[in-house]
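Shape is hard to put into words, and the shape of a protein is harder than most. The fold becomes a row of whole numbers, each drawn from a learned catalogue of backbone shapes. The outcome of that step, for a single protein, is printed below.
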Amino acid sequence: MGHKSFYVGVDCGSQGTKAVVVDGGEGIVVGSGYIGYGLIEGLPAGYREQYPSTWVEAMIKSVRDALSEARIDGIIEGIGVSGQQHGFVPLDAKGEIIRPAKLWNDTSTAEECRYLIEHLGGVREVVKLTGNTILPGFTAGKILWLKRHEPRNYSRLEKVLLPHDYLNYWLTGRVTMEPGDASGTALMDVKTRRWRREVVDAIDTALMEKLPEIHSSNEPAGTLRSEAAKLLGLPEDITVSAGGGDNMMGAIGTGNTKPGIVSISLGTSGTIYAYSEKPVIDPLGEAHAFCDSTGAWLPLACTMNVTVATEAMRGLFGLSYDELEEAVRTTPVGSNGVLLLPYMTGERTPNVPDGKGVLYGLTTENFTSLNLLRAAMEGATMGLNFGFNRLKEMGLEPSEVRLTGGGSKNRAWRGMCADVFGVETVCLEVDEGAAYGAALQALWTHDCSIPISEITDSFVHLDETTRAKPDSGNIERYRRLQQLQDRISVDLRGAFAL
């Protein structure tokens, strides 16, 4: 009788790090751990930064907690790391961190992005070069920001890493990158999976040598070095898979490894993505043309305000999650005319970094807590639907939406999503998302002769008790409300920067 094998998956996010231990034979999670943390406080408006050492400490603790809970009787074969996309981790010649990492939701680089786009000939020209425009969240603008604002730090820059790449570096001692996360830098051509010199040189002609070599997603990042193994409580020399960005690993963890499936995460921010066997490039740059971390592509739209909006409103009225769900359930579609434009932390899709939250349609009759609560959820969902519609315009044909994230636990929200998106929605039996995907990628790396879709088809199961079907009447109501929200968004963009 052969030994049992297990795989560890880690997801390093902006609010915390999760680790899971997965049984390689059955795909079940046998142990998990989570360590939460926050952003560096006291920074100027628009700055979102963290110390990478925070991620390392949280990875060590969460992995040890997951192993303690698992009490496995078998061999750990590999570990995979998922990380928040777009963050900029600058290393010096000694491999030391030069300054804290600027994160995906940092909007302080808007001016640098505008400069790069203009220098390269406008959005359409930039999209021709890489498949994506250069948004404030993406890494390219952060590198130019460092050069312009902290020249002394920039002069020490030797290697550019993303958050999950830095954790791989800590685990293995090797500097590597794979196409999924690299495509979120706005420096890589998603068609060729190679750095695009014109964009790199627009920042600095010496930058190319500071970018890691891009390896295929099925190639390991390396093997676990002895010091890291001791701290984590893992065997030395186990395989560290390529890993990827949280959306790429989330795609694997939700079984989104073949056409027709759409995954939507209802977290602090929201993401919509789908598997594609060819690049899907938006000439307007509204949706993102990313690679996935399995060798294919992952057309994606991201909004920065999902539970941001609902949590702000829930906190305002001091409600529990159950009370929020009841309030939304008992309030009619359209919130009696109240509409929330949810750009409370700026916005990425559409690209409105200076955006502000706006309550529209208030009257003395409809200005109630119930309407405000439902309007927050509707506004956030229609914000996501703006990106969903853009993906559909480019040929995406969804058969169902798989919901993940904290918001997906709300039954009223699941029903609202079905009505707004116009397709059935369903959750997963194992909602470990990106951490689970990272473990499955590690399993796949161990034997790449098996298509990863076979692994996910075997292990990723739907929770049919959560399935919600759209109401035809509500679909039409939300279609009209979507047109109103989109129009208000466009009309107010000139005012947001005032």
In short: Residues 5-242 form a domain with the Nucleotidyltransferase; domain 5 fold (CATH 3.30.420.40). Residues 144 and 404 are 34 Å apart (CA to CA).
